[in-house]
Design a protein that fits this description.
By secondary structure, the chain is an all-alpha fold. The chain is 78% helix and 2% strand.
Length: 230
Protein backbone atom coordinates (compact mmCIF):
# COMPACT_ATOMS: atom_id res chain seq x y z
CA UNK A 1 0.00 0.00 0.00
CA UNK A 2 1.44 3.35 -1.03
CA UNK A 3 1.70 6.11 1.62
CA UNK A 4 -0.60 9.06 1.00
CA UNK A 5 0.77 12.53 0.41
CA UNK A 6 -0.41 15.27 2.83
CA UNK A 7 -2.80 16.53 0.17
CA UNK A 8 -4.37 13.11 -0.29
CA UNK A 9 -4.63 12.69 3.46
CA UNK A 10 -6.64 15.90 3.61
CA UNK A 11 -8.77 14.74 0.70
CA UNK A 12 -9.40 11.40 2.41
CA UNK A 13 -10.50 13.19 5.57
CA UNK A 14 -12.80 15.52 3.63
CA UNK A 15 -14.38 12.62 1.76
CA UNK A 16 -15.01 10.74 5.00
CA UNK A 17 -16.45 13.85 6.64
CA UNK A 18 -18.63 14.58 3.61
CA UNK A 19 -19.99 11.03 3.57
CA UNK A 20 -20.81 11.13 7.30
CA UNK A 21 -22.49 14.55 7.06
CA UNK A 22 -24.46 13.47 3.99
CA UNK A 23 -25.73 10.30 5.67
CA UNK A 24 -26.84 12.23 8.76
CA UNK A 25 -28.63 14.88 6.70
CA UNK A 26 -30.28 12.31 4.44
CA UNK A 27 -31.64 10.47 7.48
CA UNK A 28 -32.82 13.60 9.32
CA UNK A 29 -33.34 16.83 7.41
CA UNK A 30 -34.11 15.12 4.08
CA UNK A 31 -35.69 11.94 5.42
CA UNK A 32 -39.10 10.67 4.44
CA UNK A 33 -41.88 12.66 6.19
CA UNK A 34 -43.49 9.36 7.11
CA UNK A 35 -40.22 7.69 8.20
CA UNK A 36 -40.88 4.44 6.39
CA UNK A 37 -39.38 4.93 2.96
CA UNK A 38 -35.98 4.23 1.48
CA UNK A 39 -35.04 6.28 -1.60
CA UNK A 40 -33.70 3.07 -3.17
CA UNK A 41 -37.31 1.85 -3.30
CA UNK A 42 -38.04 4.76 -5.63
CA UNK A 43 -35.07 3.94 -7.84
CA UNK A 44 -36.00 0.31 -8.45
CA UNK A 45 -39.71 0.41 -9.21
CA UNK A 46 -41.39 -1.64 -11.92
CA UNK A 47 -43.34 1.17 -13.55
CA UNK A 48 -45.08 4.53 -13.28
CA UNK A 49 -47.92 3.28 -11.07
CA UNK A 50 -45.61 1.86 -8.39
CA UNK A 51 -43.37 4.94 -8.54
CA UNK A 52 -46.42 7.21 -8.08
CA UNK A 53 -47.78 5.17 -5.18
CA UNK A 54 -44.44 5.11 -3.34
CA UNK A 55 -43.87 8.82 -3.90
CA UNK A 56 -47.35 9.77 -2.71
CA UNK A 57 -47.39 7.42 0.28
CA UNK A 58 -43.97 8.37 1.62
CA UNK A 59 -42.77 11.70 0.25
CA UNK A 60 -45.73 13.83 -0.85
CA UNK A 61 -46.60 17.10 0.87
CA UNK A 62 -50.39 17.40 0.82
CA UNK A 63 -52.58 20.50 0.88
CA UNK A 64 -55.85 20.90 2.75
CA UNK A 65 -57.80 18.89 0.17
CA UNK A 66 -55.45 15.90 0.47
CA UNK A 67 -54.07 16.74 -2.93
CA UNK A 68 -50.36 16.34 -3.69
CA UNK A 69 -48.66 19.72 -3.45
CA UNK A 70 -44.96 18.90 -3.81
CA UNK A 71 -42.14 16.51 -2.88
CA UNK A 72 -39.82 18.85 -1.01
CA UNK A 73 -38.19 16.25 1.26
CA UNK A 74 -37.40 13.90 -1.62
CA UNK A 75 -36.03 16.73 -3.77
CA UNK A 76 -33.79 17.79 -0.87
CA UNK A 77 -32.69 14.16 -0.48
CA UNK A 78 -31.71 14.02 -4.15
CA UNK A 79 -29.87 17.35 -3.93
CA UNK A 80 -27.83 16.35 -0.86
CA UNK A 81 -27.06 13.01 -2.44
CA UNK A 82 -25.73 14.69 -5.58
CA UNK A 83 -23.76 17.44 -3.81
CA UNK A 84 -22.33 15.52 -0.83
CA UNK A 85 -22.70 11.75 -0.91
CA UNK A 86 -21.82 11.06 -4.55
CA UNK A 87 -18.58 13.13 -4.59
CA UNK A 88 -17.62 11.64 -1.19
CA UNK A 89 -17.92 7.97 -2.09
CA UNK A 90 -16.42 8.46 -5.56
CA UNK A 91 -13.50 10.35 -4.01
CA UNK A 92 -12.96 7.63 -1.40
CA UNK A 93 -13.00 4.86 -4.00
CA UNK A 94 -10.54 6.75 -6.21
CA UNK A 95 -8.15 7.38 -3.31
CA UNK A 96 -8.33 3.74 -2.21
CA UNK A 97 -7.82 2.48 -5.76
CA UNK A 98 -4.79 4.71 -6.29
CA UNK A 99 -3.31 3.74 -2.92
CA UNK A 100 -3.73 0.01 -3.62
CA UNK A 101 -3.11 0.18 -7.35
CA UNK A 102 -0.07 -1.01 -9.30
CA UNK A 103 3.23 0.83 -9.05
CA UNK A 104 3.45 4.41 -10.40
CA UNK A 105 5.27 3.03 -13.47
CA UNK A 106 1.86 1.73 -14.60
CA UNK A 107 -0.01 5.01 -14.24
CA UNK A 108 -2.38 4.22 -17.10
CA UNK A 109 -3.52 1.03 -15.37
CA UNK A 110 -4.03 2.86 -12.06
CA UNK A 111 -6.26 5.37 -13.83
CA UNK A 112 -8.21 2.67 -15.68
CA UNK A 113 -8.99 0.94 -12.38
CA UNK A 114 -10.69 4.15 -11.20
CA UNK A 115 -13.15 4.18 -14.14
CA UNK A 116 -15.88 2.00 -12.50
CA UNK A 117 -16.05 4.29 -9.44
CA UNK A 118 -16.31 7.44 -11.58
CA UNK A 119 -18.91 5.83 -13.86
CA UNK A 120 -20.97 4.77 -10.84
CA UNK A 121 -21.04 8.37 -9.64
CA UNK A 122 -22.12 9.62 -13.06
CA UNK A 123 -24.98 7.12 -13.21
CA UNK A 124 -25.97 8.15 -9.68
CA UNK A 125 -26.17 11.80 -10.75
CA UNK A 126 -28.16 10.84 -13.85
CA UNK A 127 -30.53 8.77 -11.72
CA UNK A 128 -31.11 11.70 -9.33
CA UNK A 129 -31.78 14.05 -12.22
CA UNK A 130 -34.24 11.66 -13.85
CA UNK A 131 -36.02 11.11 -10.53
CA UNK A 132 -36.50 14.87 -10.20
CA UNK A 133 -37.91 14.95 -13.72
CA UNK A 134 -40.26 12.10 -12.85
CA UNK A 135 -41.55 14.09 -9.87
CA UNK A 136 -42.23 17.05 -12.16
CA UNK A 137 -44.14 14.75 -14.50
CA UNK A 138 -46.23 13.50 -11.56
CA UNK A 139 -47.19 17.03 -10.59
CA UNK A 140 -47.55 18.78 -13.91
CA UNK A 141 -47.80 16.19 -16.68
CA UNK A 142 -48.30 12.46 -17.03
CA UNK A 143 -45.64 10.05 -15.79
CA UNK A 144 -45.03 7.14 -18.17
CA UNK A 145 -43.40 3.77 -17.63
CA UNK A 146 -40.48 4.56 -19.94
CA UNK A 147 -39.32 7.40 -17.65
CA UNK A 148 -39.36 5.12 -14.59
CA UNK A 149 -37.61 2.31 -16.46
CA UNK A 150 -34.78 4.71 -17.33
CA UNK A 151 -34.38 5.52 -13.63
CA UNK A 152 -34.31 1.82 -12.75
CA UNK A 153 -31.73 1.09 -15.46
CA UNK A 154 -29.46 3.92 -14.26
CA UNK A 155 -29.80 2.68 -10.68
CA UNK A 156 -28.97 -0.93 -11.52
CA UNK A 157 -25.94 0.16 -13.54
CA UNK A 158 -24.80 2.35 -10.64
CA UNK A 159 -24.97 -0.54 -8.15
CA UNK A 160 -23.28 -2.94 -10.58
CA UNK A 161 -20.42 -0.49 -11.19
CA UNK A 162 -20.04 0.08 -7.45
CA UNK A 163 -19.79 -3.70 -7.03
CA UNK A 164 -17.07 -3.78 -9.70
CA UNK A 165 -15.17 -0.97 -7.94
CA UNK A 166 -15.30 -2.97 -4.69
CA UNK A 167 -14.11 -6.12 -6.46
CA UNK A 168 -11.11 -4.14 -7.74
CA UNK A 169 -10.31 -3.08 -4.18
CA UNK A 170 -10.69 -6.68 -2.99
CA UNK A 171 -8.24 -7.81 -5.69
CA UNK A 172 -5.71 -5.08 -4.90
CA UNK A 173 -5.97 -5.53 -1.11
CA UNK A 174 -4.09 -8.86 -1.24
CA UNK A 175 -0.72 -7.47 -2.46
CA UNK A 176 -1.27 -3.99 -1.03
CA UNK A 177 -2.18 -4.75 2.60
CA UNK A 178 -0.78 -6.91 5.36
CA UNK A 179 -1.99 -8.60 8.53
CA UNK A 180 -5.50 -8.25 9.90
CA UNK A 181 -6.13 -5.11 7.83
CA UNK A 182 -5.81 -7.18 4.65
CA UNK A 183 -8.36 -9.77 5.72
CA UNK A 184 -10.85 -7.27 7.14
CA UNK A 185 -10.71 -5.09 4.03
CA UNK A 186 -10.89 -8.00 1.61
CA UNK A 187 -13.78 -9.58 3.51
CA UNK A 188 -15.78 -6.35 3.81
CA UNK A 189 -15.25 -5.24 0.21
CA UNK A 190 -15.78 -8.76 -1.15
CA UNK A 191 -19.06 -9.34 0.68
CA UNK A 192 -20.14 -5.79 -0.14
CA UNK A 193 -19.45 -6.32 -3.85
CA UNK A 194 -21.39 -9.59 -3.98
CA UNK A 195 -24.33 -8.07 -2.08
CA UNK A 196 -24.49 -5.04 -4.37
CA UNK A 197 -24.22 -7.21 -7.48
CA UNK A 198 -26.99 -9.51 -6.28
CA UNK A 199 -29.12 -6.57 -5.17
CA UNK A 200 -28.80 -4.87 -8.55
CA UNK A 201 -29.67 -8.08 -10.38
CA UNK A 202 -32.57 -9.14 -8.16
CA UNK A 203 -33.76 -5.58 -7.45
CA UNK A 204 -33.48 -6.25 -3.72
CA UNK A 205 -33.18 -3.20 -1.47
CA UNK A 206 -32.17 -5.28 1.62
CA UNK A 207 -29.25 -6.76 -0.31
CA UNK A 208 -28.20 -3.29 -1.44
CA UNK A 209 -28.33 -2.04 2.15
CA UNK A 210 -26.21 -4.99 3.25
CA UNK A 211 -23.68 -4.22 0.52
CA UNK A 212 -23.47 -0.56 1.57
CA UNK A 213 -22.92 -1.61 5.17
CA UNK A 214 -19.95 -3.82 4.26
CA UNK A 215 -18.65 -1.15 1.89
CA UNK A 216 -18.66 1.35 4.78
CA UNK A 217 -16.86 -1.14 7.03
CA UNK A 218 -14.18 -1.74 4.40
CA UNK A 219 -13.77 2.01 3.87
CA UNK A 220 -13.29 2.56 7.61
CA UNK A 221 -10.68 -0.21 7.89
CA UNK A 222 -8.76 1.00 4.84
CA UNK A 223 -8.90 4.64 5.96
CA UNK A 224 -7.38 3.73 9.32
CA UNK A 225 -4.68 1.74 7.54
CA UNK A 226 -3.83 4.64 5.25
CA UNK A 227 -3.67 7.17 8.08
CA UNK A 228 -1.29 4.97 10.04
CA UNK A 229 1.24 4.93 7.18
CA UNK A 230 4.00 7.51 7.03
Amino acid sequence: MMPLSPFRRWMLGLCLLGAIVAMVLLQTVAGSPRNKANPADMELTSGAVQFRDLARANWATLDGENKVKDYQALRLNLLLDSLLLVPSYVGLLILFTLALGPSPQHAWLRQCLCVPAVAAGLFDLAENSMTGQALDDLLHRSLVDATVWDITLASRLKWALLALALLILTWRAWPGLTGITRWLAMGAFGIGALSLWAGAGLISVPLLQTGLGFMSLGALVLSLGLYRMR
